[in-house]
Design brief:
There is one protein chain. With 428 residues, the protein is of the alpha/beta class. It folds into 3 domains: 70 residues, 3-Layer(aba) Sandwich (Udp-n-acetylmuramoylalanyl-d-glutamate--2,6- Diaminopimelate Ligase, Chain: A, domain 1), CATH 3.40.1390.10; 204 residues, Mur-like, catalytic domain (UDP-N-acetylmuramoyl-L-alanine:D-glutamate ligase, 3-Layer(aba) Sandwich); 126 residues, Protein-Tyrosine Phosphatase, Chain A (Alpha-Beta Complex). The chain is built from 17 helices and 19 strands. The protein has a 9-stranded mixed β-sheet, sandwiched between helices. The radius of gyration is 23 Å and the shape is globular. The chain starts with a helix and ends in a 14-residue tail after the last strand.
């Protein structure tokens, strides 16, 4: 089927849905396949429940109803449809990637730019080869700016996502120790994430650079570019205001911009949003409003009070660089007894045990009163420090917390998404 015809079906629907549990009336259901599922099996049911069309790639299913549209590969068709739809729009697209802070930065940028423009941004962490097409198909003729988050765990993935999203501007939050297994080490991470800048250099797009990051400054020889940060040469010159135990703030043109975020690692995330606000001509008042009203959610540095404990829940994801940054910020900002509860970090390949041991050593050299770690990787670490307790599973640590309750403490909870560390909150 030609992509133009497929786009006509899409335009005649209320939007694309890939999860049969989330069908909406007159939607366009796309039956994707995975290792443990086949969406084709739900295509007929989708039509019965109100989908206007369903895209399938199994001929025997397509024969059952004229509203079942047959293609060779539904995933590839989804990607091609998104790419074609993107080309039909006048929307300006900002692409962003990085090892840490992508989602927070994306949401800050969206919160700021929405003060002046009609914007749409990636929902949640829909940032892969399926999520990016879904984000693009959510853009419409009224969308002035789209903010598209791009994740990757191997080389050439960012380049592929850029070809789908066709961003005019791009930003890398940072280069950290994430997905080391797929990238093959930190040099691979730098190379893989930099594919967004390489794409923009080929297509004449604008690179948005954190001038304070020495690994990004090498791109300043490329034009056009726009820089933000504390360096005096920055196009958007900022001053990060360090205030212990208070939310982060920064100064722009002698005016203070307050946030509701904690942890110095968030300074550059806020800075990126402020920089793009200036780039797009927002007033300082509009930028201030966008930053000050943003609250982190979905287990990203959420601040929770439970009894007489104050909890920082940062269970959205974790890698060695983000883990070290969170611990450093927690130690700096805590007022009372400090307890750290950490879960395993994933996708580190041959670096796995070394990375987990380094986190233990960082904690041993700190003044943290209690250190609880959980997961098979942390369980295999070595420590003679009496403050360190290791557990193989969440159930094991839950039982420990029932018998050894934590009282009147500040607590950091962090781990990779697969560890579901938020499940421990009810045990505190």
């Amino acid at each position: 089927m030609k992509i133009m015809q497929l786009h006509d079906y899409f335009k005649d629907s209320t939007g694309v849905v890939t999860d049969s549990r989330k069908l909406t009336q007159d939607c366009f259901f796309i039956a994707l396949r995975g290792e443990n599922f086949d969406g084709n099996q739900f295509a007929e049911t989708a039509i019965e429940k109100g989908a206007k069309y369903a895209l399938v790639d199994r001929p025997e299913i397509a024969q059952k109803d004229k509203r079942l549209i047959l293609v060779e590969d539904t995933l590839r068709s989804l990607q091609e449809l998104a790419q074609y739809h993107r080309k039909k729009l006048n929307t300006k697209v900002i692409g962003l990637t990085g090892s840490n802070g992508k989602t927070t930065t994306k949401e800050l940028i969206n919160n700021v730019l929405a003060k002046k423009f009609n914007t749409k941004a990636t929902q949640g962490n829909f940032n892969n080869h399926i999520g990016v097409p879904l984000t693009l198909l959510d853009l419409d003729e009224n969308t002035e700016i789209g903010i598209v988050e791009m994740g990757a765990n191997h080389q050439k993935e960012i380049d592929f996502l850029c070809k789908l999203a066709q961003p005019e501007l791009g930003l890398i939050t940072n280069f950290g120790q994430a997905h080391l297994e797929g990238f093959g080490g930190i040099e691979g991470v730098i190379s893989g994430k930099s594919e967004i800048y390489e794409y923009l250099s080929r297509t004449g797009g604008t690179i948005i650079l954190n001038i304070d990051d020495p690994l990004q400054r090498k791109w300043m020889s490329y034009n056009p570019h726009y820089t933000f940060g504390e360096h005096s040469d920055a196009n958007c010159h900022l001053k990060y205001l360090k205030r212990k135990s208070k939310p982060l703030a920064l100064s722009l043109e002698d005016q203070t911009i307050e946030s509701q975020l904690h942890g110095e690692y968030n300074f550059s995330n806020i800075g990126a949003a402020v920089g793009l606000g200036k780039f797009f001509g927002l007033s300082i008042e509009q930028i201030q409003s966008g930053i000050s009203t943003y609250q982190s959610t979905n287990n990203r540095s959420q601040r929770i009070e439970k009894g007489n404990n104050k909890i920082i829940l940062d269970a959205y994801n974790a890698n060695p660089s983000s883990m070290k940054a969170s611990i450093t910020a927690f130690i700096y900002n805590k007022k009372n007894r400090g307890v750290v509860i950490l879960g395993d970090m994933f996708e580190l390949g041959s670096f796995t045990q070394q990375a987990h041991q380094q986190i233990i050593e960082q904690l041993e050299s700190s003044g943290i009163e209690r250190i609880l770690v959980v997961g098979e990787h942390f369980f295999r670490t070595q420590s003679n420090d009496p403050r360190v307790s290791r557990f193989e599973s969440l159930e094991e640590i839950k039982n420990y917390l029932k018998q050894n309750p934590i009282e009147n403490s500040e607590i950091l909870i962090k781990g990779s998404r697969g560890m579901t560390m938020e499940r421990l909150v009810d045990s505190l």
